[in-house]
Design brief:
This protein is an alpha/beta fold. 17% of the residues lie in helices and 25% in strands.
Length: 178
């Protein structure tokens, strides 16, 4: 990946690169229509943000670390996140295209503009599991079939609250239809 104008950096969650449009939010109530091209940029993420996180392509927060709520949910949904940036809400301009890279190690970088990169596919057919069981976390039943092709020993953690939210299509927080 080519490097561009660095806006901010933080802890990378996942290993993906996402190009999209930042949507700066102070609370989930401020959110309008969101798509996979949107990247939520906020101070911190709490459980009341969960219905919005499935709709977006990335998450950036000022606060938090690898075990924060934003990081955990991002891992479960397969969405790239950069957490603990400190001043992302000050440095990133709402709606201006950015490239967020979680593919450069433990540190995630957010660059201004659309940066070119190459994606490499990995063949899982020759991977052998270790003696210790490798189990997955299931948060979204819609992804279960796709994830079943990854080398694994089954499901180790089932996020029932996510499954209920996805099935009922409403939340106790009053966001209405998801």
């Amino acid at each position: 990946m080519k490097e561009g104008k660095l806006l901010v950096k933080g802890d990378a969650v996942g290993s993906k690169i996402k190009i999209g449009y930042p949507v700066l939010l102070n609370s989930p109530n401020e959110a309008g229509p969101l798509t996979k091209e949107c990247i939520i940029v906020t101070d911190t993420i709490t459980p009341d943000w969960d219905p919005l996180l499935k709709k977006v392509g990335g998450i950036i927060t000022n606060k938090g670390g690898r075990t924060s709520h934003a990081a955990i949910v991002a891992r479960e949904l397969g969405v790239p996140a950069i957490v603990g940036c400190g001043n992302a809400t000050e440095k990133i301009v709402n709606g201006e295209i950015i490239t967020m890279s979680c593919a450069q190690g433990k540190i995630g970088y957010i660059y201004r503009g659309e940066l070119p990169f190459k994606e490499r596919k990995i063949d899982f057919t020759e991977i052998h599991l270790p003696k210790t069981e490798a189990k997955m976390i299931l948060a979204d039943p819609e992804n279960a079939f796709q994830l079943s092709f990854y080398p694994n020993n089954g499901i180790g953690l089932l996020r029932m609250e996510f499954i209920i939210t996805h099935s009922v299509r409403d939340t106790p927080y009053g966001f209405g239809e998801i």
